[in-house]
Structure formats: C-alpha cells, structure tokens
Amino acid sequence: METYLCPKTISIFFIFLMMGCHIIHCSVTYDRKSLLINGQRRILLSGSIHYPRSTPDMWEDLIRKAKNGGLDVIDTYVFWGAHEPSPGNYDFEGRYDIVRFVKTVQKVGLFVHLRIGPYVCAEWNFGGFPVWLKYVPGISFRTNNEPFKAAMEKFTQKIVGMMKSENLFEPQGGPIILSQIENEYGSQRKALGAEGFAYLNWAVNMSVALNTGVPWVMCKEDDAPDPVINTCNGFYCDKFSPNKPYKPKMWTEAWSGWFTEFGGATRHRPVQDLAFAVAHFIHKGGSYVNYYMFHGGTNFGRSGGPFVATSYDYDAPIDEYGLIRQPKYGHLKELHSAIKLCEPALVSAEPDTISLGSNQQANVFSRKGVCAAFLTNFERNTAARVVFNNRHYNLPPWSVSILPDCTNVVFNTAKVGAQTSRMRMTLTTQLNSWETYTEDLSLLDDRSTLRAMGLLDQLNVTMDRSDYLWYMTSVDISPSESFLHGGKKPSLTVYSRGHALHVYTNGQLSGSAYGTRENYRITLSTPLNLHAGSNKIALLSIAVGLPNKGQHFENWDMGVLGPVFLENLDQGRMDLSKQQWTYKVGQRGETMNLDSPNGASYVEWTEASLFNHQQQPLIWHKAYFDAPDGNEPLALNMRSMGKGQIWINGQSIGRYWMTFANGDCGNCHYSGAFRAPKCQLGCGEPTQKWYHVPRSWLKPKQNLIVLFEEIGGDVSKIFLAKRRTATVCTDTHEHHPSVLNWHTESDGDKTVVHTTQVHLNCAAGESISHIKFASFGTPSGTCGAFRKGKCHAQNTHSIVEKMCVGKGRCKVKVSNSFFGTDPCPNVLKKLSVEAVCDVVSNATHLKLN
Ligand SMILES: *[C@@H]1O[C@H](CO)[C@@H](O)[C@H](O)[C@H]1NC(C)=O
Ligand SMILES: *[C@@H]1O[C@H](CO)[C@@H](O)[C@H](O)[C@H]1NC(C)=O
Ligand SMILES: *[C@@H]1O[C@H](CO)[C@@H](O)[C@H](O)[C@H]1NC(C)=O
After folding, report:
1. Closest atom of ligand 1 relative to the 201 alpha carbon
2. Of 14, 145, 458, 556, which one has the fewest beta carbons inside 10 Å?
C-alpha cells in the first residue's frame, strides 16, 4: 500500500493533530489484522446513516448520537438516481448534499466509509440506479457491458472528483478512510460466468485507478481481486474470512434489524443477540463492524424499493425520528467501550481458543503486558459456570463475557444494564378544514394520451415520472347480449405484473387488487356493469417502488401486460389484450402540481364538509395547519385513510398505505440464531400508520398538507402527534458487570469497583418528573408493567425519588448499603425503576426551588 505525504499547510496539520495523527505521513492502509490509519492498527466501529433518509438539519444530531454511542465511522451509500435525475443533470442540494454530510461527519470528528456502489440495493428505488440508465442504447446492468461501464465510471469519477476537490479523503486531511465499489456482487458474478469476472476485474481496475489513497472494499464478493478487500454482510459474520491472509476481517453490514414492507409486520432484533454477534466477530479476529442501520430513517418521496414501507426505521439504535432507542443504543455503547478496552490486545496478539466445556470457549489475546479474553457460551437455553484462569465465571445462555484484563468481566452481551425507554405519540394537532378535489375520469381520454395496439410495459411509458399509469380501452356491447336480458353478468379478468390495480368501468370503480413484495403479480377477476353500446374500461396500474435487486432487474417488466379478457359474452371470451389501448401517465392532480403551494391554488377545491367523500377513491385533500410548538419529532397518524401519497409544503412525506401486517408475532427470544422473520411486531395492525414529518419542512403558520387518496378514507380523523419518551426504566441485578465500573488509577493500574450503578437519562431538555415504580428486592415484570416481589426494600421509592426527580439524569446504586438495609439476605436482588420524563418548563423549575 502506498503512503501519502500530507499536502497543505498549518491548518490541515492542526486537523491531523486533532484526529490523533502523530506523524506527518497520513494514510489508510491495511494488513491481516486491521485497517491502519496513519500507521496504527485500529478496531473500528461504524454505523450506516443514509443522508437522503433524514433532513440536513437532523444530520449533526444523528452523527453526534452515533459518536456518543461509541462509533468511529459513519457509513453511507451514494444514491446515483437521486443525484442524476436525467443524464448530466446533477442534484447535490438539500437531502442530497453529500459533501455537506461528509463535512458534518468530519466536524463531529468521525471517519466516513463512502459506499459509492453505484449499485447499492438498499431497499431503494431501482437499487439506486437512475431509471434513464435502462434506456441507454445497448445497456445491460452490472456486467461486462460497455455502455454500462462507461456510465458507471463517469458517475464514480464524478463522486470521487467531488470528494477530492473538497479534500475529503483521509490522505488529504479528510474523514473518508474507505470506499466501496459495487455491492453484494458475488451471486450475480457466479450467475454471469466469464462476463461477470471480466466486469469484476474492470470495476477493481477502474476504482483503484482513481487514486483515492484509501482502500476499496467489496462486500459479499469472495473473489474480489487485490488490492480490494472482500467483506461480509449478514446477521452473523464470525465464520467469514477474507480471500487473502493479508487482508483484514471486516463486516460491512451487521444487520441491526430489518426493513419493513407494506403488508408485513415490523421487525425487531434483540440487542442481546446483536451484541453477541458483534462480540463473537471481534474475538474471531474481526476488526471492523458496521451496523446496518445505525439510523435507518425515512423513505421520503417515492424513494423506497418495491413494497418497501415509508418508514425505514430498521429497529436501529437511533429510531426513525432521530431519538435514541433504548436499551439497544445503551447496551451497544457499553459493548463498544468494552471492545475499546481490549483494543491494545486485539490489534497486537493472535487469538488463542481454549475450550471451557462442550459448548463454551475462551478466546484470549495475550501479548507482552496486554491480555483480553472473551468467554462464550453457545448454549441456547442453559447458563454455564466455567473456570477460566482458575476463576469461576457465570455465562448466561447465548452470551459472550468480555474481560479486558483477562480477569474482570466488564460486559456480558446477554445482561442488559442500559435503561429501557418507552415512547409515546401525543396528539398535538387535529387537522381540520379539509378541502377536496376529485379526479375527473371523464377527462382521462384527452389529447395528451398515447395510443398503441396492445398492452405496454408500465415503466416504458411512465419512465417513473409517476406511480400511476392508466390503461384505457373500450368495448362495444350489442343490445342483443343475453346479460342485458337477465343473463349472467360478464366478468373481466386482468393479469398484471404489479404492483396494485384498480379497474374502472364507465367511470365507476369495479375492483381492486394488490401484489406483495414476495409476489408482484396480480390476477383480478371482477363482474362488470356494462351497457349496450360503447363502454369505457380504464385500468389504473400503480407502482409501489421499482425493483432494487435480482438478476437483470432492469429488464423486468411491470404493469398490465395481459392477458385481459371479458367472459360470459354470447361469443364466449373476448380478448382485449391486442386491441387499441390509450395510455395516460399520472393523475391530473399530479400534472397540475396540486401537491405544491402554487399548484394547489389553480383548481377549485370543495369544502370537505359539503359531501360525504369517505369511501370515494381518487380524491385530493388539502388543509392548512400551524406548526406545533417545541422541537419534538412529529408524525402524522394516517390510520383512517387507505392508500396514497402525502406532501407538506410541497415536500413529499412519502407513500402511505393502511395495509395490514400479515405475519407471525409469536415468541421472540434473544437466544438462538436470528433470522429476519424471527421477532415480528404489530401483526394484524396496519404495517405503518405513523408518517414522519420533519420539523425543518414546517414554517410557524399555515403549512399546506396535500394528500392523494386512491381508495377512500376519512380525513377528519388524521392528526399530528409529537413523539416523546413516555417513561424510562432500569431493571438491573446486583453485581452487574459494567464498563462504568472500570477505572484507571493514576499509576496506570486498572481496578474494578464491584458495586453496580444504574443511570436514568431523559432526552435533552427533559427531566424526571416522577417515579412510577421503584423496588429493590425481587420485583418482576418489564418496563411499564413492573410488580413488587416478596422481597422489597420499603424505602426504595423515596430514595430513588430524592436522587432523581427534577434531574435530567441520575445515578442509583444497586446495593444493600445504598438502601440502608438488606431486604432479603442470601437472595440475588435487583433494582427495577420506571420514571417519567417531562419537558422542563418554568413551572417545574419553580416547584424545585
Ligand atoms: C486490470 O489491471 C491489470 C493490471 O494492470 C491488467 O493486467 C488487467 O488486464 C486489467 N483487467 C481489466 C479487466 O482491465
Ligand atoms: C421496454 O423497453 C425496453 C427498452 O426500450 C425494451 O427492450 C423492452 O422490450 C420493453 N418492454 C416491453 C414489455 O415492452
Ligand atoms: C420561562 O419564563 C421566562 C420569563 O418569564 C420566559 O421568558 C420563558 O419563555 C419561559 N420559558 C418557558 C420554557 O416557558
């Protein structure tokens, strides 16, 4: 690997000092143990935060929270389709201001992994590719194809060039220490054979030739040629090894949860299992872990992939709204501190594995004065008592204990000491004075339509300018047809390749059908009300995000491709597929930009109260509202609506859909191998009823909300809520291992205090207003539903109250002496507390004084 002489002058040198650069050579290289930053091996903890999935005013806070959570690196994909909406027309503004994002990470003092792709998958529309790319003559995606390679090279050069000109690569004094080319290419390459290999080699040569001065990685590509590092993505990566002994073992996507699809339940990954996976990876020699996602955020606009919900929360340590999710965040923060205590041993020593039992082992890193050990119990159901270095250790099922000095346990992945938070949505604004505008289907067939014989591919017509495409045709019915004289009604059958479909006959809705992420295809059969003479049939085909993965997904067709036929006519079946169809892209309201403040003033809106629109489809609604006070995150409750899109002041909040979660919300236990369907939440509820409204999109007064409803719903029940922490809890045993107990004495010796301390923290600007529950003894239950046990120290409540009420954060010890008495000798006790946080107001200040 090359090293670089730092360019530039004094001020840059200052940044190096601040970033811990002791030598003038600034570089990022690697060896078999880890990445080396300025010559130093590092254990690096990273988290994915995708800049377009939040707003620029949220970025710094998110990155600071990531830093406080113990991360060193922020990882993001680069979203080509967002940046180049048409060839050569670039957009790097607002949420797409990638330079500002990288500079914000730099300002906070973290590194960046820039995953350029430019194929990113990411549950993003078209996998991150712009749709126009499909129409470049002769193109074939992600293979040895000249037009594709030319376009990919041009965009990669563009991004690298921008970063270089802003001095953002580490050798230039910037934060970028790593870049990714392609994404999870392995399976595609295998399917493509020689062409796949040729493309892989080309991609490596192309990217290395860009001379960024930092290493390139390829994830899930076992054959990544040198000098590119192949890396692992998955729920676990302990079994992964890089393809050369001189490459470090890196995990580019440790899945913190899973994405939500419309029609599915939300997914949860217990933090005990995530921490287990990470600790296990580190003691197997891993030196880089990136959480995918650390903050998932929101798929604003139409940016989500097929059936991907607007919320991309991902059960990440920072929730969709930018609030800390506990105990996930806190437990990982402690894990990160524990790993950092082991870093000197991890980067210098070779691991030694010692069996401690049939399903237990120690992994020891010991060398010249440093020693760190990880004790693992692989049993799914039983705890183990093991002997290591002549001492006894208790290991809960499916857990790793971390011993940064090979003696004292500072962390166990299954013992959660971090506080738990329960969130609540508080109604703040009922939206009212709605006005409506109904799409007029009689105007559909105007001069702007396209005519063709037969059925066309939806994307080929819309070019993704809209989710909606109308397919229209007509059928002539003879007055002699028997159904007009009491016979059986004719029925229409439509085969569509997705994703949703509404059938209109002579302007009336006759039927609807929906695909799923697993199966886009739809077959709809519905009886039609036809009359003698010419009848208009209009099929509204709706896209819910373009494919983001799959072999040559650019060639997948979609929409109504037939056959379409009528049955029960006197002639039998009438095939409509090959006859003349007319096509119209989008709704009239879209053409008139009704979603924007200017467009909304062009049409005559009707006061909603003047007619009952509840179950009518294809209606635009608008209302105005003032911004709620405070700075808590906001969300719209859309439970009373059907399916459509929402805009506020012209900004798209995203697609909404009250489709119900079909899933198995059975038992969820942290132990045992995790899979995406394991821990589902919210079965039988709408997949997503809350929609994030970024504060920065609001002005103090008169905000315009516009929504387009496809099916029908009751706008009078829509409301805006603030997302707040309802209560915070702790539930911690005596003798809980904790990094917080680890102290370095002035002479450099480490000591461990064995009294457990727990912390309760409210969000910034809030303080604990009262204690709902507190018991030191043997309480049971979980946060929100604690109960006293047989053993209970009577004064727990008053002591915790005295320590905590009125404070933004407080510390309580879990010990007999702290509560002045041992309520039940020889019993292992714990402290359970539930505290309520409230916004600090002048009133509470007064009360305290
Ligand atoms: C990549 O570069 C190597 C070394 O310069 C060269 O031998 C090889 O032919 C190149 N491969 C491709 C596909 O360009
Ligand atoms: C859509 O357009 C592409 C590119 O022009 C073409 O290859 C493809 O056959 C079209 N698909 C359909 C179903 O017409
Ligand atoms: C607290 O009181 C001061 C002075 O009366 C006032 O200026 C301030 O806005 C109040 N703050 C809150 C949060 O109510």
Report:
1. 13
2. 14
